[in-house]
Amino acid sequence: MRKVTIVYASDYGNTEKMAQSVADGVDSVESVSSHLVQAEEVTADDLTSSDGVIIGSPVHMGSVDWRVKKFIDTVCSGLWMQNKLNGKVAGVFVSGGGFGSAGGGCEIAMLSILNNIAELGMLIVPLPKNSPSYKSGGLHWGPYGRSADENMENVGVSDEALAVAKVHGANIARATLAVSGNIIFLE
Amino acid sequence: MRKVTIVYASDYGNTEKMAQSVADGVDSVESVSSHLVQAEEVTADDLTSSDGVIIGSPVHMGSVDWRVKKFIDTVCSGLWMQNKLNGKVAGVFVSGGGFGSAGGGCEIAMLSILNNIAELGMLIVPLPKNSPSYKSGGLHWGPYGRSADENMENVGVSDEALAVAKVHGANIARATLAVSGNIIFLE
Amino acid sequence: MRKVTIVYASDYGNTEKMAQSVADGVDSVESVSSHLVQAEEVTADDLTSSDGVIIGSPVHMGSVDWRVKKFIDTVCSGLWMQNKLNGKVAGVFVSGGGFGSAGGGCEIAMLSILNNIAELGMLIVPLPKNSPSYKSGGLHWGPYGRSADENMENVGVSDEALAVAKVHGANIARATLAVSGNIIFLE
Amino acid sequence: MRKVTIVYASDYGNTEKMAQSVADGVDSVESVSSHLVQAEEVTADDLTSSDGVIIGSPVHMGSVDWRVKKFIDTVCSGLWMQNKLNGKVAGVFVSGGGFGSAGGGCEIAMLSILNNIAELGMLIVPLPKNSPSYKSGGLHWGPYGRSADENMENVGVSDEALAVAKVHGANIARATLAVSGNIIFLE
Questions:
Q1: ipTM for the complex?
Q2: What's the predicted TM-score (pTM) here?
C-alpha cells in the first residue's frame, strides 16, 4: 500500500473542499491511500512515511498562504537538510478569488510551492490540458479553484474544479505507484 | 515631449489590437506620444530615443512568443551591455487563448518579459486592481487579453480588455512624465 | 521630507545587516528618511504614511520567509482591498545561504515579494548591473546577500553585498522623490 | 531500450558541452540511450519517439534563448494541441555568464522551460542538493553551468558543472525507466 499525504490550509473552506477531492482521487486508485492533514498540524513523520505529497494553498496577494510557508520553513527545511524526501512524488493545487480572467496570481502561488518541492528533491506531476474538467479549473501546474466570481462575490469553488482536483489526486497516485520502489537519485 | 515605444508581436491580430489600445492610452496623456513597432522591426535607436518602453506578446505554451524573445536577445542585449536603458519606465501586456479560468500561463509570460526589463534597469509599472475594466482583462503585472473562450473558440479580445490596455498605456505615460529627467541610478 | 519604510525578518542577523545598509542608503539621499521595522511589528500606518516601501527576507527553501508572508497576508491584504498603496515606490532584497553558484532560489524568493508589491500597485525599482559592487551581491531584481560559502559554512554577508544594499536604498529614495506627488494611477 | 532526447542551443559551446555531459549521464544507465539534437533541427518525431526529454539553453537577459523558444513555439505547440507528450519524463539545464553570485537570471530561464514542459504534460525531475558536485553547478531545478567568472571574463563551464550535468542525465534516465510503460494520465 502506497501513501499520499495532502497538506493544506484553508480560510473559508474552499481549499479544504479541494483537498478532500484530491484525497478522493488518491483513494480511487487501487493500492494507494490518502492522508489529509492541515498545514499547522503536519509532522515530519507524516511526510517521511509517505510515498507522495500534495500541497494545497489559498492564494493570498498573489502567492502562497503564510501558514503553508510556515509548514515549509519549519517542518520541511529539516528534512531538506537531511535529504529525506528525495525521489518522492509531488503535486500542488490552489484556490483563490481570482479577480479577473487571468488567475489572480495563482501561477506564482503554485510556483512558490513547486519551488519548495523541487528543493526537497521530489518529482513534479503537472496537469495535462486534456484532463476531464480542465477548462473549468485547470492550469498546467495543477488544479485551480476559483472561490469568487468576476465581481469578487464569494460563490465557492465549482463542482468542475472539484472534479479536476480529484483527477489530479488520481494522477499523482498513479505516478507514485510507478516511481516508488525505484531509486532515482544517487548520492 | 516624452516618447513611449510599444514593441509587440502578433499572430492573428489580437495582440496588435491591444498594442493599438495601449498606444491610444499613451497618446491620451498630454506631452507624451506613442511609437508603435513590431518586434521584428524595432531598432536600438527606437529604444534609446524613448523615455518609456512597453512590450506586448502573445502567450505561447505558457510563455513569451519567440519573436519577442529574439528582439530581447538581439536588440536589447547590446543595450544591456552598455547600460543604455537604465532608469527608463516600462510595462508589459499579453494576449492568449487562456484555456480555463487560470490565465493559461499568462503570468510566467509576463514575468519573462519583466525579467528582461529588470535586467535592462527600467522601472516597472504594475496595474492596480481598481483600474477601470480590470476585472475583464487585468492582472497585477499588466493587461491580459483573452482571445478565446473556455472552449478554445477564437472570439477575439473583448472591448473591456482593450479598455484596460488603454488605461495601462496612460498609466505608463504618466509614470514616464514623473520619472524622466530625474537621475535614479548612479554608476 | 519623504519617508521610505524598510520591512524585514532576520534569523541570524544577516538580513538585518542588509536592512540597515538599505536604510543607510535611503538616508544618504537628501529630503528622504528611512524607517526600519521588523515584519512581525509593522503596522498598516507604517505603510500608508510612507512614500516608498522596501521589503527584505531571508531565503528559506527557495522562497520568502513565512514571517514576511504573514506580514503580507495580514497587514497588506487589507490595504490592497482598499487600494491604499497604489502609486508608491518599492523594492526588494534577500539574504540566503545560496548553496552553489546559482543563488539557491533567491530569484523566486524575490519574485514572490515583487508579486505582492505589484498587487499593491507599487512601482518596482530594479538594480542595474553597473551599480557599484553589483558583481558581489547584485541580481537585477535587487541585492542578494550570501550568508554562507560554497560549503554552506556561515561566513556572513560580505561588505560588498552590504555596499550594494546601500546603493539600492539610495536608488529607491531617488525614485521616491521623483514619483511622489505625481498621480500615476486613476480610478 | 528507452530513449531520452536532449534538445539544446549553444552560442560559444558551453551549453553544448553541458548537453554532451547530460547525454553521457543518460547513456551511463543501462537500457537507456541518449539522442542529442540542436533546437533548430529537432523534429516532432524526435520527441514523440522519446520516453524522456531534456531541454538546455543559454541564459540570455535572464531568460531562455530565442531559438529554444522558437522550438517550443513551432515544434512543441502542435504536440501540445494533440496531447502527444503527456506522461513522458523531462528535465532542464542552462548555462550563462551569471554575473554576480546570484545566478544572473538562470532561475527564470529554467522556469520558462519547465513551464513549457508542464504544459506538455511531462513529469519534472529536479536536482537534489546532495547530488555529487551540486555545490559547483547545481540549482534545485537542474544543473547550471557558469561560463564566466565574477568579472564577466569567459572561463568556460567547469568540470564540476559538467559532472553535475552528467548526474542529472542519469537521474532522468532512471526516472524514465521507472515511469515509461505506466499510464499516469487518463483522458
A1: 0.97
A2: 0.96
